[in-house]
UniProtKB/TrEMBL annotation, chains A, B:
This is Acyl-CoA dehydrogenase. It comes from the Bacteria. It comes from Marinibactrum halimedae. Residues 471-597 form the Acetyl-CoA dehydrogenase-like C-terminal domain. Residues 284-450 form the Acyl-CoA dehydrogenase/oxidase C-terminal domain. Its cofactor is FAD. InterPro entries: Acyl-CoA_dh-like_C_dom, Acyl-CoA_Oxase/DH_mid-dom, Acyl-CoA_Oxase/DH_mid-dom_sf, AcylCo_DH-like_C, AcylCo_DH/oxidase_C, AcylCoA_DH/ox_N, AcylCoA_DH/ox_N_sf, AcylCoA_DH/oxidase_NM_dom_sf. Belongs to the acyl-CoA dehydrogenase family. GO terms for molecular function: flavin adenine dinucleotide binding; oxidoreductase activity, acting on the CH-CH group of donors. The keyword Zinc does not apply. SUPFAM superfamilies: Acyl-CoA dehydrogenase C-terminal domain-like, Acyl-CoA dehydrogenase NM domain-like. Residues 162-269 form the Acyl-CoA oxidase/dehydrogenase middle domain.
Length: 601, 601
């Protein structure tokens, strides 16, 4: 049995029918591209994924990297796979041609990396984090810094990390204590401990470029006193050759539930006389630069959640078609042959729910990628600004919805396989474990929910919030024209009305109770908003599928579009009504858990 | 940080305040017992758990048993722990004194084994499966079989397994192909392959007694042609000494997501001339005997789900009290000290949800254990029959609700710890992995849902269904007397009304559509009924806590009872309203997923 990593037909639908990626080729930056070059990149990714990633996916999971006190050891196949990504140009496929990139739009690049992620998100982690690091320095570093650090990261000689978390301050960046002291050369000496640094040490590349958040001596307290530094593993001479080892030491490896090939490290900066660091931009503005990377990383996290859900769905679907077991309830003759388990009602539910979660989540991530293109390359300033506003608003949802519902999809994939889903002969239990990190890193679901309700909704006189509502209303107006879709459009309208009332109620509540009490159901609010947004994304898909069906497609396309409509219907009937449950909790200003005293637990 | 395995105060509440375990001592079988002997057994279990299980809990997980083609190797600490359970008498604490047991009531024995389960459910698996095997042979075997197999299992020399699943037939027992041929001695020769046999081979005991389902040559097709056999690893001579090795071979070990210390094996029976097996009871009645064991095992599975949730809750609660991070939203001064994370609204939600799931689930399991006592030892035949009827009805809910909501609780425990929850320095990710088996084995959640809706509800003119409704009405009537509880009692009443209407609708639907279509939302029905039952269990706890509060308890007890009422309120406000969501799906006779064609996926 070889299940496809991803459905090619679905990717085609999303890229070219739902999001019209071809239109990108009208823009100056992408004018050398066309649908064929996009597809060629997708095919390259699929080939690398199937040739280098897929065969080692489970070995990477079962043979974790080790640390002998001196160096990190990992199975050599990881380096072969990482090198294949670099050599194929996939590691920096959005970067400028001048930097060795493919200059692909984000929306296409997202689908390209989806193949690699589906075949081994753990192994992909090394190059995708490097890419994010290089993007940040490109945006905020000096020309000299770009030359020294970005160029070798783009060509694969150096790797990159982001080093934020500290033992005493996880999500609470305001309390980070890593210090930076300016030395006589105008550089800084960095001292402190960082934990959970992905790819923090390994031998895959010649050098590792850490982006480190630290506090310059005398800086203000809290988040306003945080600066960002480039702190390399090895210093680099002016001619680009490697110099001596910097004062950065690997203190240990963490052993994770999943994502096991991607080393998670504890790093110790400045055990001797301080690690040499180079300031990025200005002092005390580090967090805003890091958020450049973090917003991008949040979309990537959502994407990993969605893609791992997609590949688990494909795997369990394939299994359910091929595995005979049991009979339909109506069949009373024990001598009749067993049916394939996809015939059983509850197995179909678990498959269709996975499709609804995974394809809804991934379409949402591609929307994010397209908005990211638009904010950079849309034709007018007004369009770019509008895209930025909507993307900024949607980011907590794009980060958290796929990372919450991706693992739920993988959980159903395990259940479809039954006992076989619980053992490592099949990858679905690993998908769950890999995916479980996504609701945690780059801001937990709880943090995303407060970002949405406390910041993004009221921000700029509700500009992002209104933009989101308007975008949904537009789709509703189109869907109402179709007999097949009008009922779903009405259901979404009703949920949006509920959402608006709920939003008003919870924001008004901060006048009559503490903000902590009023916002204690912020995750229910995120659930509510997330489900409304994903229902909208499904209605958008429904509009495309419905129109395509009316143009007498080939049988296989007809089946595909009917499947899309059925998944949409499932989401509207089995999931969207939950919005009213969450809305009630929020609108009631329920504080049952907030009122729970520590001594009562 | 040493989090308690379980809350002693909560166990005391459940055993003595909610279920009145002391009343058991009025029954002849338990007349030598009193509260002190019960507590002594609990203390013994706690001591063994803390001394032998807890220190190796993570080692058992990280160092899986291996198979070198000849024998299974496991870390020696497992044998030490298993021996400690046997030597302390805890392995067969419900068994007769005459067989070396403690003759404890089930309700107390359940709490006793909860300590061991919390400290290492994997290691406990060996003795609990042996105990279930011995119980089955005691109930259905001959006096000679009991002497030969049960006695050495009770005293710990032999271990026991149940061997049902085959590679081609997982949940579909009707299709099992393992064969049995009667030989000249009146024994049978067994041939076939079994998979996922827990504890199928190891060196912990002198011998292993497999209970094997097989089909006698010429038996009817389907489940009516299945017989049950005792098939030992080593034959046993008439003097009780071990004879030659039987024709049972270990074909391999499975590597599981969790529960890693408990070997899961593929066994090959009869590779040479057939493994010698001894028929239990009569031919072709094997499945009914196995269901004796399976009903017991289903309650045990629910219990494992609940206990693993309880211990994860205790662990994350302890962590949340001790871990400082961030500030309340209302606090704008960055120089104020960070608060412990239990102060954050969303962390409190995740803790209170765990309490509501875990304590609700465990109270439900103890109700099952008490009904199991009552069906055997209640004073009158009518009481015994009533207990049997209710327990039989509730079994699919007792099996599945804790095994579905236990992992959800563990998932929240991971989230409370954030990044620290994802690494193996803390056990919460292991709890999740261990617990994830429970919705699968001993009948998946899907199978339990069909057992409930298709069999248990209509069975015996709705006798069990009506008994369950009556029991709930009784609690509602009591709760209505209290001002603090009346509103909750009304909410439960409303949900029960919805449940009744939904039940009528879905059963009537089988007249107008195929049974497979009508029952395609059986899991929603199980969710609906499960939530109503757990709300009832919470209301029962609320009644006790409310009464206790009015009698001016000590401060620590007052806090405890207030916590119970708050968890009850949380369940009623955040969970019970979901029953209306599920009821709508079922009552609409929604067939969206059932109508999904294979080609559309």
């Amino acid at each position: 049995m070889v299940a496809p990593l991803l459905s090619e037909r679905d990717l085609e639908f999303l890229l070219y029918e739902l999001f019209d990626a071809e239109a990108m080729t009208q823009r100056a930056r992408y004018c050398d591209h066309n649908r064929e070059t996009f597809n060629a990149a997708l095919q390259t990714a699929r080939t690398v994924a199937e040739k280098f990633f897929l065969p080692i996916r489970q070995k990477v999971d079962s043979e974790q990297p080790t640390f002998d006190g001196k160096a990190v050891h990992m199975i050599p196949e990881i380096k072969t796979a990482v090198d294949a990504v670099i050599e194929s140009g996939l590691a920096s496929c959005t970067a400028d041609y001048g930097l060795g990139g493919m200059q692909l739009p984000e929306v296409v690049a997202n689908a390209v990396s989806a193949y690699l992620s589906a075949a081994g998100s753990t192994t992909l982690g090394y190059t995708s984090l490097t890419n994010a690091n290089a993007n940040l320095i490109s945006a905020h570093g000096t020309a000299e810094q770009i030359e020294k650090w970005v160029v070798p990261m783009r060509d694969g000689r150096f790797a990159g990390t982001m080093a934020m978390t500290e033992p005493g301050a996880g999500s609470g960046l305001a309390d980070l204590t890593t210090s930076a002291v300016k030395d006589e050369n105008g550089h800084y000496r960095i001292s402190g401990s960082k934990i959970f640094i992905s790819g923090g040490d390994h031998e895959l590349n010649d050098n590792i470029v850490h982006l480190v958040l630290a506090r310059v001596k005398g800086a203000p307290q809290g988040v306003k006193g945080i600066s960002l530094f480039i702190v390399p593993k090895f210093l680099v001479n002016d001619d680009g050759s490697l110099g001596e080892k910097n004062d950065v030491a690997l203190a240990g490896l963490f052993h994770k539930m999943g994502g096991r090939g991607h080393t998670s490290t504890a790093l110790s900066f400045g055990e001797r006389d301080g690690a040499i660091g180079y300031l990025v931009g200005e002092e005390n503005k580090g967090l805003s630069y890091m958020f450049h990377m973090m917003n991008e990383a949040r979309i990537l996290v959502g994407t990993m959640g969605a893609v791992t859900a997609l590949t688990g769905y494909q795997y369990s679907l394939d299994y359910a078609k091929e595995r005979p077991q049991g009979r339909l309830l109506a069949e009373k003759d024990p001598s009749s042959p067993p049916v394939s388990i996809i015939q059983h009602g509850d197995v179909r539910r678990m498959l269709l729910a996975q499709k609804a979660y995974a394809e809804g989540a991934y379409a949402l991530c591609l929307l994010g990628a397209q908005l990211s293109d638009d904010e950079k390359t849309a034709e007018t300033e007004a369009e770019r600004k509008a895209a930025h506003t909507l993307l900024d608003f949607l980011t907590p949802i794009i980060k958290s919805w796929p990372s919450e519902y991706g693992p739920k999809a993988n959980d159903l994939a395990i259940q479809v396989l039954g006992g076989h889903g619980y053992i490592n002969e099949h990858p679905v239990e690993m998908f769950y474990r890999d995916n479980r990190l996504n609701p945690i890193h780059e801001g937990t679901t709880g943090i995303q929910s407060l970002d949405l309700l406390g910041r993004k909704v009221p921000m700029n006189q509700f500009a992002g919030y209104q933009a989101c509502l308007s975008a949904m209303e537009e789709t509703i107006a189109i869907a109402k024209q179709s007999e097949a879709l009008a009922g779903f459009a009405d259901d979404l309208s009703t949920s949006i009305t509920t959402l608006k009332t709920t939003t008003e109620t919870v924001l008004a509540a901060t006048q009559s109770m503490t903000v902590d009490a009023a916002f204690c159901n912020s995750v229910s609010y995120l659930n509510l908003f997330g489900h409304v947004v994903v229902a909208w994304i499904w209605l958008k898909q429904g509009v495309v599928a419905d129109a395509a069906l009316s143009s007498s497609p080939h049988k296989s396309d007809e089946d595909f579009y009917k499947g899309k409509l059925q998944a949409m219907a499932f989401f509207f009937r089995h999931e969207l009504p939950l919005t009213h449950h969450w809305a009630t909790i929020i609108s009631d200003l329920d504080t049952t858990h907030f009122d729970m005293q520590e001594a009562w637990f």
